[in-house]
Amino acid sequence: MITTASGGTLESTVKSILQNKGFKIARFREWAKNPQTYGQELLLVHVPFKTIYHHEGNTEFLLKSVKYNLDVRIECKWQQVSGSVDEKLPYMYLNAIEAMPENHILVIIDGDGWKEGAIAWLKDAAKQKKYTNKSSAQKKLEVMNLMEFMTWANKLFA
User: Fold this and answer.
1) What is the structure's pLDDT at 33?
2) CA-CA 20 to 30 A from 81: which of 109, 112, 133, 152?
3) How do the domains of the chain map onto residue ranges?
4) Which residues, including other chains, have CB under 8 Å from residue 140's CB and lie 6 or more apart?
5) How far is the C-alpha of 144 from the C-alpha of 128, rounded, in Å?
6) Strand-pair partners of 77
7) 115-133 burial string, b = 16+ CB within 10 Å, else e?
8) Cβ atoms of 109 and 77 closer than 8 Å
9) What backbone phi and psi angles, to 5 degrees, belong to 117?
């Protein structure tokens, strides 16, 4: 229960940061029905995609900005206590580079419960573009913790 609550806190913090930068928050499914009524600086929540297993999946956010020319899918991962969640990182990584339609994917990963080497592996895979095919070679995958995300947002949306 603590892990879920902390993951929710991470997501709420991301929302707050981007809302303070002028982004309007909307549910993706509502926005998709009538996008012209929502403006051009948006943080969409609960964003669907088709996974590498061809199942319905969702990520936390899609950041859309005409002003900054952005279309960034944001995935949040929190691990407060040790467990097996970090073993799902390769699946999340492959979904990011093979299944998520956006060319810019941002993974915000934080908490003290990750197995040693898990975050380093993910950052290295993102930097080296491991396991990519030609269709995913153009993808930009960034992995950062919450503080790095705050710095990223402050610099980009100054």
Assistant:
1) 97
2) 152
3) 2-156
4) 103, 104, 105
5) 15
6) 109
7) eeebbebbbebbeeeeebe
8) yes
9) 95, -15
Q: How many residues does the chain have?
A: 158
Tell me the pTM.
Answer: 0.90
- What letter represents residue 5's amino acid? A
Name the DSSP letter for residue 36.
G
Tokens read off for 125: 């895979």
Packing angle, helices 146-156 and 2-20, rounded to 10: 10
The predicted structure's pLDDT at residue 133:
60
pLDDT along the chain (158 residues), means of 10: 59 96 97 95 98 96 97 93 81 93 95 91 85 67 96 96
- Residue 11 pLDDT: 95
Q: How far apart are CA 141 and CA 74, in angstroms?
A: 10
Each residue's pLDDT tens digit, 45-56: 999 999 999 999
Report strand pairing: 56-65 vs 70-78. Answer: antiparallel
Domain boundaries 2-156, corresponding CATH code: 3.40.1350
